[in-house]
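Fig. S4 source data, part A: sequence.
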Amino acid sequence: MTTRSEIGWWVAGAGLVALVVVAAVLAGRPPRTYDLSTPEGTVQAFLQAVLDDDTAAARRLLAPDVDERCVGGAPGDESVRITLVSVTATDDTATVEVRVVRSGGEPPFGAYEYTQDATYRLERTDDGWLITSADWPFPCIERIPPP
């Protein structure tokens, strides 16, 4: 005969297995790609271009009146994880906040990790969203000459 406590253990065990399965599925999912027609998609494409050292692609996502912005500075041996924190948008302007986590070094005592929040401001144009100002999470390697 099964007691209530045994049933409780079976239910708890099944719940734990379900949580492990859900966590495994979520951990294996590829990063979400946002549509370039959105502010978060524009910032995502800009940051990807920077990480890829693709100055031309990054420049296309900056507003024409931006004098110069740092582009390049791919992290080299560092590991970089960028997550979307928030998006605030009106009809013509938007603010996108991201969190950048950089890590590297040799464990156990030479490893490091630090976090920086960055804010990107955008304006909607006939050609889509363009970045008008940004906090910079990567060191500058190259300056984009004004158009």
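Fig. S4 source data, part B ends here. Residues 4-27 form the longest helix (24 residues).
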